[in-house]
Amino acid sequence: MRDLIIVRGGGDIATGTIFTLRKAGFAVLILECGRPSAIRRCVSFSEAVYEGSTKVEDTECVRAGSVQEAVRCLEKRGLPVLIDPEAGSVSLFQKGGEYAGEFRLVALVDAILAKKNLGTKRGMAPFVIALGPGFTAGSDCDAVIETMRGHDLGRVIRNGQALPNTGTPGLIAGHAADRVIHAECGGILYDAAKIGDYVEKDSTIAVITDPQGKKHEVRAPFAGLVRGLIRDSFPVTTGFKIADIDPRKTEYKNCFTISDKARCIGGAVLMSVMEFLSEEKEKA
Fold first, then answer.
1. Contact status, residue 226 vs residue 197, Cβ threshold 8 Å
2. Does residue 46 sit in the same domain as residue 127?
3. pTM, entire model
4. Domain count, the chain
5. Which of 117, 100, 129 has its CA nearest to residue 277?
6. Among 35, 182, 183, 280, which lies 20 to 30 A Cα-Cα from 203?
C-alpha cells in the first residue's frame, strides 16, 4: 500500500509542492479544472491538461481521462493530473473507498491559491493542508502554509490564518506591482511573445480581442524577460492576470525552473506532512 497525497491545483506554486512530495517518495494525484489559467506555464503541471503531458525539470506529468486511468498511472509510479474541480474523486481513496486498499490517503493539499476556499473541508483526508489566505487552520483545514514573501514565508500554521492577500507581487530589481500584467478588458487573448523572450519597454506581448472585435495591445511595462504568459486564445476578463515580466535579462533559466518561493512552500508542506505522520505513529 502506497502513501498517497492529493493536491488540488497544478499551477506554479502547487507544482513546487507536488515536485517536493514526489521526490520524498509519496504518490501524488493532481486535481485540476478543465481550463487552468497558470501564466508560468513552463513550470506548471497543469499544462498537461492541455498538452496531454508536460515536464517540469526532471518530472513528467500526464493527463488522466478517468479515475481509473489516474490509478493505473499511480500504479506505475507516474504523476497523473485529473480534471476534477469539485474533488469528487477524493471519496474513492478515503477509508472504505474503491481504492483505499491500494493507496493509503495521507493528506490533501489545497494549492489552488484562489485566496478563498473553493470546497476543501477538514476530514477530506486524515490531514488537510491549505496554501495561503482564505482558510482557517483548526476549522476548515488542519494546517495553513504562509505564502506571503518575507520572514514568515513557508511557516506552518496549525491554528489561525495566513496573512491577507496584498495583491502586490514580490519586489524584483525595483519592480513589484508593475511586474505582473492584468487584462485591461475582457475578450480573447492572443500571444505575441512567448515565455523566455526578452522584450523592450512598450513591446506588444499579447493582443486582446474584445466582444466587439476591437483589438487591445498588451505592452511590456519595462524591458525584461517574459517569465509568464497565459495560453494563446485564452478567454480573459477585466483584471485577469495574464503575464509576468522579469527585469533581469541574466535570469533566463528562471523561466523554466521552479521558483524559490514554490520550493520553500513545497518544503513546508512536506515538513507538515511528516510531522503529522510522526504524531500518528506516536499515537499508535
1. yes
2. yes
3. 0.93
4. 2
5. 129
6. 35
pLDDT tens digits, one per residue of 30-40: 999 999 999 99
Long-range contacts (CB closer than 8 Å, 24 or more residues apart) made by 173-179? 173/247, 173/248, 174/247, 175/221, 175/222, 175/224, 175/245, 175/247, 178/221, 178/222, 179/221, 179/244, 179/245, 179/246, 179/247
CA distance 230 to 250: 22
pLDDT of 150-193, one tens digit each? 999 999 999 999 998 766 565 565 555 678 999 999 999 999 99
CA proximity to 10, closest of 36, 41, 46: 46
Q: Is the dihedral of CA 34, 132, 194, 29 positive or negative?
A: negative
Domain range spanning residue 26?
Answer: 2-165+260-283
For residue 255, being part of any structural domain is answered with no
- Indicate which CATH number applies to the domain containing 141: 3.40.50
Answer whether residue 124 is part of any domain: yes
Q: How many helices (H) and strands (E) does the chain have?
A: 4, 17
